[in-house]
Every structure is written in structure tokens, then in C-alpha cells.
């Protein structure tokens, strides 16, 4: 019987013939195969004699996927030339990101959009007819240094940035992100529309048509709907979305008009219907009603509706739209034609955005390594692109629990897969550890990468 937790071994330096992150090699190979590396190479030309900039940026994304979060961490890939070839030094990566000005970042965005269109084609998302749902939200990122340009105190008595993001609900991709100071207001319509316009530009052309700022609405072949929390619950935000032929589902803010509508509806039990969960089950004690006829919406776009939900008060319940000892009230404005119950289910799915932001914060978002604002904006773009690369890999190459796994899970069970390297017949052979729990899933991923045209 073994009574020790580890086998006694002799440890020596200068090991050879081993690989530590075969899963990350699969991710980098996938980026090459879908054309991401080549597209970035064309977008950011390299100086004569320098490293290919597309390769540098993709390897930086792979580094972020692996859980590392500053330029110096590229050394974890650089020490494995068997898997990753010539990897740029940390100083080269630093200079590359520093030099990504607005023009180069726009070119990178165009390259990402072309790759995204190919991924959506493979997922058959481009040919679908259902609405494309975009989730808008902002988050606070704490920075523990006042020397970083563009930072500011925030309302939670912290300090740092308050980036705003737009995600595609169908895939979890971060279509757009804008870096803002910590004291930026979430209800700024200008910031919201900047992010929305960037997100629309990332959609395949057949979907984006008719939804760009200034487009003819007749060009739209596919509906687009934006969901957002109460920061966008203003007539101005709804009007700006309507001008882009985009539908909306915006969480309501507490106002005197809403107070009056709820007071009128309380004494009308026939108005309230049982609320449903995301799986279609009746939500205990929760009810939904439409209050459009009880409130003046003349300053909102035509067709705007007010949907209200009430549920029994419970410890820790969030702020209610109406002071009540029995129920918590929560509602949203929408221009959809869904019945009130389905509209409530639809808008509550906006909570997915919290999962998306958590993934970003677990993959480099919480550490901005530069003092220069322009470089940190480029770093934000890199973090978002790395998260999208991982999502594409999960959607096209993985299945089961790994297809929806969190970044920490992927790092421990897939990206860190160990192997032995062997040179044979002028080929580099990588033999994955046979007893590794996800070895078969990784081999299937490589097989799927090989057939991507």
C-alpha cells in the first residue's frame, strides 16, 4: 500500500522531448486554419526582418487564453519552440501593442469581422432567420495605480476603468468593447451607440445591412434586437436604436410614471399572468403584466410597450421599481410583439452577459499592463479577440461540457495537456499523455481542425 502522495523521484534540469501545453497548440493551429493569423498579418505589416505581426498577435491571444496576463508571460510559449516555433520576446510584444494606433486597430477589426463571418457560416448562423440578439453592458475594472492614463474614481469608491461591451447572445462572442474612465456614466447614449455601431460592423454583411447608422431600413434582411439594463432605459437610447432599425428590450428605471402604472395595475388581478422560467416552467409566485395602456409613452418611439414582473420579496432582493411589502417589481420597455410572458423570459436572458464579462475578467481584462491609454485600448481589443478565439474553438472543435466550459476549466483540463515530442521521418510527433482525462477530446479537436477548409 502506497502511503505517500507522490512517487519519490530524482529531479534534474534541462528536460527535453516534452511539451506542456498541447491544448494551446491546438488553439493556435485553429487560429491559423480559420485564417485569423493570415488576416492579422495583412492588417498589421511587420517591419523588415521582424516577427510576423499576425503571428505575434495570435500568440498573444493564446497566451491570454492560457491564463497569463502581461507581456512578460509570453515566455511560457517562447520556451516551447517545438510547439510554437519562433515566439516573439516580451519586448517585441510590448512594442507591437504600443504601436497599434486607431488605423491599425480598425484594420484588425476588419480582419476579425471576415473571420467571424466564416465561423458563422460554419455554424449556419448566417442563414438563420431568427433575430440576432445583442447584449449591451458595462463593468468596472479596478486599477491599483493612478499613473495609468484614462483612469478615474468610480461610484463604488474604487478606481480604474469602466469599459462597455456588446456581446452576441447566440455565441457569447464579444463583438465590441470600448475603454472608458471609471467615472463614465452608463446612460451615455453616445457611448452606447458607439459600441453598438462597432458590434454591427462585426456582424456578417448580410446581417449588418440595414442596421448601420444611416442605412436604408429596407436593406435589412434579418432582425437585430439589443437587450440592456436600466442604464439604457431612456427614450434617447430607444430612439437611437430605432434609427438603426434595431429592436430593443431595455430594463426600466424607477420613475413617477411607473409608480402610477403599477398602482393602477395592483387592483387588477385579471391583468397578471404566471411568469415562466428560462426552461418554460412556472415561476413560483411570480407574475407578469403589460402596463402599456397605464403609462404615457409619448416620448418613446412608436410601438413601445411596458412589461412588468412582480415576484415575492426575498432576502437580498434587488431594488424594486415600487415600494411594496409583498412584491418586488421589475420591468422593461420593448418594441417586440411577443406576449408579455415571453417578453419577460426573453429580456431576463440578458443575465447571460454577466457570464461573458466574467470570462473576460478571467482572461486578461483585469490587468492593463500599459500606462498609455492608446496601448490599453489595444490591449482591450486583444483580450476580446482572445475570448472570441476560444469561443470559436469551443463551438467548432469541442462538444459536451468542454464546449461551454469556463476559462479556468479549459486551462486545467485541456490547454495544459502534457505530451512527449519525438522526431521521426523529418516530422515532429507529439504523443499526448494516454491517461490524460481529455486526451480523446483533444484528438477529436485536432481532427476537426484538419478538415477546416
Number of domains: 2
Share of helix, binned:
25-40%
Number of strands: 15
- Please state the oligomeric state of the protein chains shown: single chain
| Regions with little confidence, pLDDT below 50 for 5+ residues | none
Q: What is the CA–CA distance across the termini?
A: 53 Å
CATH architecture of the largest domain: Alpha-Beta Complex
CATH superfamily of the largest domain: Transposase Inhibitor Protein From Tn5, Chain A, domain 1
Spatial sequence of strands, sheet with the most strands: 7-6-2-8-9-13-12-11-10
Helix tally? 16
Radius of gyration: 25 Å
**The first-level CATH class name of the largest domain:** Alpha Beta
Strand content: 15-25%
Write down the overall mean pLDDT: 92
Main beta sheet: 9 strands, mixed
Indicate the structural class. alpha+beta
Q: Rough shape? A: globular
CATH topology of the largest domain: Transposase Inhibitor Protein From Tn5, Chain A, domain 1
Amino acid at each position: 500500500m502506497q502511503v505517500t502522495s507522490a512517487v519519490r523521484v530524482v529531479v534534474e534540469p534541462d528536460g527535453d522531448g516534452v511539451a506542456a501545453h498541447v491544448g494551446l497548440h491546438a488553439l493556435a493551429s485553429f487560429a491559423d486554419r480559420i485564417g485569423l493569423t493570415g488576416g492579422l498579418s495583412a492588417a498589421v505589416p511587420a517591419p523588415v526582418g521582424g516577427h510576423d505581426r499576425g503571428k505575434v498577435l495570435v500568440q498573444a491571444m493564446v497566451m491570454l487564453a492560457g491564463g497569463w496576463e502581461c507581456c512578460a508571460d509570453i515566455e511560457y510559449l517562447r520556451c516551447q519552440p517545438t510547439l510554437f516555433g519562433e515566439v516573439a520576446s516580451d519586448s517585441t510584444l510590448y512594442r507591437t501593442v504600443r504601436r497599434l494606433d486607431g488605423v491599425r486597430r480598425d484594420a484588425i477589426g476588419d480582419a476579425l469581422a471576415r473571420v467571424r463571418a466564416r465561423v458563422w457560416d460554419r455554424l449556419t448562423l448566417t442563414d438563420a432567420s431568427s433575430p440576432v440578439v445583442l447584449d449591451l453592458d458595462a463593468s468596472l475594472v479596478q486599477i491599483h495605480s493612478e499613473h495609468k492614463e484614462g483612469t478615474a474614481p468610480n461610484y463604488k469608491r474604487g478606481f480604474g476603468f469602466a469599459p462597455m461591451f456588446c456581446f452576441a447572445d447566440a455565441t457569447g462572442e464579444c463583438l465590441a468593447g470600448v475603454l472608458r474612465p471609471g467615472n463614465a456614466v452608463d446612460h451615455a447614449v453616445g457611448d452606447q451607440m458607439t459600441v453598438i455601431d462597432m458590434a454591427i460592423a462585426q456582424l456578417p454583411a448580410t446581417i449588418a445591412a440595414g442596421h448601420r447608422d444611416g442605412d436604408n431600413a429596407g436593406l435589412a434582411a434579418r432582425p437585430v434586437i439589443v437587450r440592456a439594463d436600466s442604464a439604457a432605459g431612456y427614450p434617447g437610447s430607444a430612439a437611437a436604436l430605432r434609427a438603426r432599425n434595431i429592436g430593443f428590450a431595455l430594463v426600466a428605471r424607477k420613475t413617477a410614471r411607473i409608480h402610477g402604472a403599477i398602482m393602477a395595475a395592483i387592483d387588477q388581478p385579471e391583468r397578471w399572468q404566471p411568469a415562466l422560467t428560462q426552461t418554460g416552467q412556472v415561476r413560483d409566485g411570480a407574475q407578469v403584466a403589460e402596463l402599456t395602456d397605464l403609462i404615457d409613452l409619448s416620448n418613446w418611439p412608436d410601438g413601445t410597450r411596458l412589461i412588468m414582473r412582480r415576484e415575492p420579496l426575498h432576502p437580498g432582493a434587488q431594488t424594486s421599481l415600487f415600494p411594496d411589502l409583498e412584491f418586488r417589481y421589475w420591468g422593461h420597455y420593448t418594441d417586440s410583439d411577443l406576449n408579455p410572458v415571453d417578453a419577460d423570459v426573453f429580456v431576463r436572458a440578458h443575465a447571460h452577459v454577466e457570464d461573458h464579462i466574467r470570462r473576460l475578467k478571467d482572461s486578461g481584462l483585469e490587468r492593463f499592463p500599459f500606462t498609455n491609454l492608446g496601448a490599453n485600448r489595444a490591449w482591450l481589443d486583444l483580450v476580446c479577440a482572445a475570448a472570441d478565439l476560444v469561443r470559436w474553438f469551443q463551438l467548432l472543435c469541442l462538444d459536451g461540457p468542454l464546449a461551454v466550459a469556463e476559462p479556468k476549466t479549459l486551462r486545467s483540463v485541456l490547454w495544459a495537456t502534457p505530451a512527449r515530442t519525438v522526431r521521426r521521418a523529418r516530422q515532429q510527433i507529439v504523443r499526448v499523455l494516454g491517461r490524460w482525462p481529455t486526451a480523446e477530446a483533444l484528438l477529436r479537436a485536432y481532427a476537426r481542425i484538419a478538415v477546416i477548409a
